[in-house]
Amino acid sequence: MGILNIKSQISNIIRHPLLVGSLTMVVGSNLYNLGQFIYHFLAGRLLGKVAYGDVAVMVSILGFVSVLQLAMGLTVVKFVASQKGKAAISNLVKWVNQWSVLLGVFVALLAVVLSPFLVGFLKITQPTAFYLLIPALFFFVMANNGRSILQGLLLFDKYVLSLLVEIAVKVVLTVILILAGFAVFGAVGAILVAIVASYLVTRVYLSPYLQGKRGDRPQIAPLIKYSLPVFIQGLALTSMYSADLILVKHFFSPEEAGIYASTAILGRVVFFSASPIIHVMFPLVSKRYSHGLPYHKIFYLSVLTVGALASLAVLFYFFFPEIAINILYGAGFLAGAPLLWWFGIFMGLLALSMLFIQFYLSIGKTKIVSLFAAAAIIQVTLIWFIHPNLLTVIQISIVTTALLLIGLLVYFPYHHRRLR
User: Fold this and answer.
1) Degrees (nearest 5) of the Cα angle 322, 323, 326?
2) DSSP structure class, residue 364
3) Whose CA is closest to 79, among 294, 355, 287, 296?
4) At what angle do helices 269-290 and 254-267 cross, to 10 degrees?
């Protein structure tokens, strides 16, 4: 009887949706992240520090838009996961697709207006490459919203496939275009083609839900009410994730900006290693919460997993920073070795903060996003006025993120009592 019980428990653990979904997302996302490293390895080695600094800051702008788009993405995930019946889901998917087109056009037009200013502010050495971001941003919005729908449908394997197609195309084209002499233009052009390919993958898997005419428009009030605080949180996270690199590109020399960019890309491994867990937790908790099922165990397991992954990455960067930098960028970037584990701490704290805020949002607790906004404002303000060296910039980010995490932890027992 005891053995059967143990077998049953093991079977339940293996089939647990968090484990299955997380395993798919972790394996797929890590392959994607490996591809990203290969892309940055090639760009850094083939372009040199100055030109690579241009590419890295343009990649950060895409990341800025990606996290900024979190408002719509998380709203889509939450409401798709909460729908009951294929007809309701299909109708919502059709409406989301239309809204994605409008949002993509808006973002692209905004990029057209801001491009001349950004090229000067960021000291871009090849301005023509920067303008490739305009069409890339349109398809980037479309692809991300398609992934959000797949995530809400718990189709994590399809979500991962779109990532892998994107990174495969990007890596192959980067080699071809840079060796053909297109330099920064080639590296950014590879990104554009890869994003379009990723969008087409999401379109294929969502096509069954896009058949036929749209039904009645979903109630817009709950969507807007939920998306506004999520937008604030997305804007704040985007700022904490990207503003430091943008400010360093503005205030420091091109060589120092290139060193910081290489350190930031490696340091973000800590955040990327945790993000699949967060992506899986959100729809699972949201679905269980909307159906009145217990969900706290999923969150606790997610905290343990994210904490363990972040700690391992930081320890590796503390003891072996030269190995990581040499593998990806080469000896020319070793000046960033003393900074690497500091950046890992920053990203680890940000990953845990992201996990907590995603948990609160998945159960409809939106007011807590004000803490994220406050932390982002403090970080940018302090870096703007205090930036004697690169280490100080990272330490400011660590302090502000640590304060944010403390605030989110203090709120947890309060939210628990409110739910009871």
Assistant:
1) 80
2) T
3) 287
4) 50
d(CA 241, CA 122): 17
The token pair that represents 321 in the structure block: 């920073």
Please, are residues 246 and 265 in contact by the beta-carbon 8 Å criterion? no
Structure tokens at 29: 């996302």
Locate 91 and state its tokens: 């109708």
DSSP symbol at 209: H
CB 237 within 8 A of CB 372: yes
d(CA 274, CA 394) in angstroms, rounded, equals 20
Measured torsion, CA atoms of residues 55, 60, 62, 67, in degrees rounded to the nearest 10: 170
CB 267 within 8 A of CB 15: no
**Rounded to whole angstroms, how far apart are CA atoms 270 and 312?**
9
Spatial CA neighbour of 412 closest among 336, 334, 299, 316: 299
Burial call 219-233: b when 16+ CB within 10 Å, e when fewer: eeeebeebbebbbbb
Q: Are 165 and 31 in contact (CB under 8 A)?
A: no
- One DSSP character per residue, 91-104 reads HHHHHHHHHHHHHH
Burial 87-99 (b: 16+ CB within 10 A, else e): eebbbbbbbbbee
* Distance (Å, whole) CA 307 – CA 52: 31
Contacts of 212 (CB under 8 A, 6+ apart): 90
Q: pLDDT truncated to tens, each residue of the chain (420 aa)?
A: 455 454 444 444 445 555 555 567 667 777 887 888 788 878 877 887 778 778 877 887 787 777 666 666 666 766 666 666 667 777 777 877 788 888 889 988 988 888 888 888 877 777 888 888 889 989 998 888 888 888 777 777 888 899 899 999 999 998 898 888 888 888 889 999 999 999 999 999 888 878 877 777 666 666 667 777 777 877 788 788 788 888 888 888 888 888 888 888 888 888 877 777 887 787 778 778 877 778 888 888 889 989 998 899 899 999 988 888 887 777 777 888 899 999 999 999 999 999 998 888 888 787 888 898 899 999 999 999 999 999 999 999 999 999 999 999 998 887 666 555
